[in-house]
Amino acid sequence: MAHTVQDHQMAQPQAAVLSLPPSGQAKRWTVLDSLLCGALAGAVAKTVIAPLDRTKIIFQVSSQRFSAKEAFRLLYCTYVKDGFLSLWRGNSATMVRVIPYAAIQFCSHDQYKRILGGYYGFQGKALTPFPRFLAGSLAGTTAAMLTYPLDMVRARMAVTPRQMYSNIMHVFVRITQEEGIKTLYRGFCPTILGVIPYSGITFFTYETLKKLHAERTRRSQPYSYERLAFGACAGLLGQSASYPLDVVRRRMQTAGVTGQQYGSVLNTMKAIVVQEGVVRGLYKGLSMNWIKGPIAVGVSFTTFDLMHNLLHKMHQLGYFTH
After folding, report:
1. For residue range 110-159, what is the model confidence (pLDDT) as tens digits?
2. What is the pTM of this model?
3. Cβ–Cβ under 8 Å, residues 299 and 48
4. 219-253 burial by CB neighbour count: b if 16+ within 10 A, else e?
């Protein structure tokens, strides 16, 4: 998620450089490349893991004890009762959120790295650890702030039957009419509090592993399977650090349809611990995240690389010279 478009660009022959657009247009296309590649990577990755993600959310918002056996039983029962496509219920809302979220996150991370690099005197060089963490945290926070209501809608669609909400707009309308427009931002605080360590650790870990890899191997660019491994490690660390806040935000987001009443972040966390315990409550479904996380990150990086390579070739062939 964190690698920049510039990281992928290789030295080009002089003839190829001369055929590229002028510098201003090339920079503009660099931003557009990041937007497009990031959006597509996020959409493909989330679609692949959507059934597992939906199952995780259902367990997060209930008091039912989580186990791998129960998770796969839920998947099977959903398939038998509502059909194969029901496993992807709520994925349309996920796509509406993920596409702008991933695009904003990729682009804003590049911009924050550039700004922080200039501020700390590392322009054009690898950032030191703290600015590296800060750039990731700011990128995740920016994306989350701009797309949060869509995450709320997606959570509602994931845990409710089809009869309750027919489509994305229906969710917005019913929540606004029945619970008030403020409900669309319920769970916003734990989301931001969780995004700061998650995005910071994820981007920091991935960028650090790439830097160490380049120093050890003398290769400026890792292979795709190496990127997949770096991303998987980054995702596992980030998810593990921020997971309790993810459970809290899901409880707060779905309180209107589960019959629960939650107040602040601390009160929600306290209620979960009292009723279900620390591990079985705040870390419910984490093992499933350890399965779907590496899959999602791997698919995301692979899609990003393939898409960027395609766009890079199209640049070289002169498709974007006008």
Report:
1. 889 889 988 877 766 778 899 999 999 999 999 999 988 888 887 787 77
2. 0.74
3. yes
4. eebbeeebbbbbbbbbbbbbbbebbbbbbbbbbbb
